[in-house]
């Protein structure tokens, strides 16, 4: 029985990427053009044409490398079909060359046309030709001039449209001879002075610099060729796999040939598609079932009851770095068996939207079937890298050897709920209206810290009876609390520097303008409350997120009361720098705003009314981001 084999990879197709994020910039598109061309050249040197290239069969891995799938699928479907040629399943027509559609001779230029069509879609987000019926699309491939990428847009470099027009020429003789030549021409327009790119060569593999794609990402620009080799099943259940060239050069079968009687039956009709899809599904089901039942292959052991590993990942600050970065992780896993000999468990943060991967470290055994992230790896990524911003998914994979991205099987993973993740990011990573776009609760943490420090400076100045220093510190505190738009904001006089008072906050304000000017412009505290509430009320919010969002709101309410009092005390000291009551009270409430308050007999500060301060608000915002890890991807 024939069957298909392909690597197990976590990917998304280019058409999904385009639907989610829109067209690519010319450099990113060029990177994928190079990778796809590498795969096609690799196959061509082995006598194989793709003949079915489209945005659906170019798959993007989480490390940004492309996988070109469906090599041989068109030929396999043709060989499996026992119906008339006109009824056979022929695959995608998104970028199908005219000669292929007309039943002419296929050649390497056929894949050039297909890659040109895919490149057009990468740059514009639209297929080369569109229509309400497949016949309309086929007719345009056969006769219509390809649309220019410059239509409606002017940001493409001069010459890029001409490169695409040549790749999409109706006559194969007028196209680039091979996909590598097309990729070279594209890059000569887009990145003409690149010092790192190795141009494609016409010299065959093994005799020159033509790049070979590999199945293991190694930092090169090559794509992985995901062929679909055809094999046979031996009586003993073992498999013998041999790649079958997919009719590399020669006449292709015509599409849309009339049946012996009645009107023409085009191959894209629903029954034909269903038959083709059903044949492939049944084919895979037979192989999977055989492997499952016999206990051989990658599905061995799936029928037995297993204990699935579980874990958690908490985002914390590296104690050796600045506060407010969420640049370290605590990961604990239980019920996880030992990795295979010579392998290890690696932890990664993955940005699924942009195909970026941030390596975190390795898990080490802490007991029977329990693992934790190596303590020396905490903060091992670049200092200050906010790991919550680095990705929306955490993966634990089993790896062998040194790898720069996850290539082994995924053992555990956890993903932020997407709607809630937006507001967690606003709290902990970035908010568009703040200075430096810092997160709202991060702003609360940093400004209450500065407030507490400035109150201590004021207390020293008061004890030394330095009226100028008291007034400077009081104005500094007012500026930190109210922000640059506050009703009592004043830039610090030059004389304040002489008494070592220079801190005036970041200008955004803990209370913002609304406290004193009545304009409704919020500061860090009100906006942080809003987004903690929004996170808790999203439809995908978990019970854990709702719990800690409530704790954040409680701590922020405490802080608002304390800093409001501190602002009043500071204003009193500006009028009377000798006021003992205002000075004493200011030190007390500023300390509470940052450190919190021990409000009961347990001698701990909790996220409860009258206890939690800036530190507690920040910690529980990080608890909102805690990921629960489950088995698999």
Main attributes?
633 residues, alpha+beta, eight-stranded antiparallel β-barrel, four-stranded mixed sheet, 19 helices, 16 strands, 14% strand
Description of the molecule:
By secondary structure, this protein is α+β, with helices and mostly antiparallel strands. The protein is built from 19 helices and 16 strands. A hairpin with a 4-residue loop joins strand 2 (58-61) and strand 3 (66-71). Helix 12 (440-463) packs antiparallel against helix 13 (467-482) and helix 13 (467-482) packs antiparallel against helix 17 (543-575). The longest helix is centred in the C-terminal third of the chain and has 33 residues, at 543-575. It is elongated and about 95 Å long. It starts with 10 loop residues before the first strand and ends with a strand. The model is unreliable at 84-89, 203-305, 376-381 and 514-519 (pLDDT under 50).
Helix content: 25-40%
Q: Mind telling me the C-alpha Rg? A: 32 Å
Q: Total number of helical segments?
A: 19
Strands, count: 16
What best-fitting shape do the alpha-carbon axes yield? elongated
Q: Strand order across the biggest sheet?
A: 9-10-13-12-11-14-15-16
Major beta-sheet overview: 8 strands, antiparallel, barrel
Topology, element by element:
Elements lengths: L10 E3 H8 L4 H19 L13 E4 L4 E6 L1 H8 L17 H4 L3 E2 L1 H17 L9 H10 L16 H8 L11 H12 L33 E4 L2 E4 L5 E4 L7 E2 L18 H25 L15 E7 L11 E7 L8 E9 L4 E12 L2 E4 L13 H4 L2 E8 L9 E6 L2 H11 L11 H24 L3 H16 L12 H4 L15 H4 L6 H13 L6 H33 L4 H16 L18 H11 L2 E5 L2
Parallel strand pairs: 3-5
Antiparallel strand pairs: 1-2, 2-3, 4-8, 6-7, 9-10, 9-16, 10-13, 11-12, 11-14, 12-13, 14-15, 15-16
Helix pairs in contact: 2-5, 2-8, 7-8, 11-16, 12-13, 12-16, 12-18, 12-19, 13-17, 16-17, 17-18, 17-19
